[in-house]
Amino acid sequence: MKTYNNGQKMSEKKGDTYTHFFKSGNVRARGKQVGGVMEGKWIFNRGTGELWQIGHFKNGKKHGRWVRYDRKGKPEYDEVFEDGKLKKKK
Length: 90
Hints:
mainly beta, 61% strand, 9 strands, 0% helix
């Protein structure tokens, strides 16, 4: 298991769900991996623990809706991807 200098683990796996951590211990990202690539819904946070963005992957590429939030929790952008390519901005 890889850890930061302070002993905090960098990531952990439970079933097919991966959780990546900041050095502080706050969750950086959480989602599934299949065959070593990101798959399905992933949630990303800022170092402070606040929600940053929610997005979906298919075969390791952005696929589906991606929403990024500002520090007040309001959407900054809302986009749709298909096989890693931007298809639509909302």
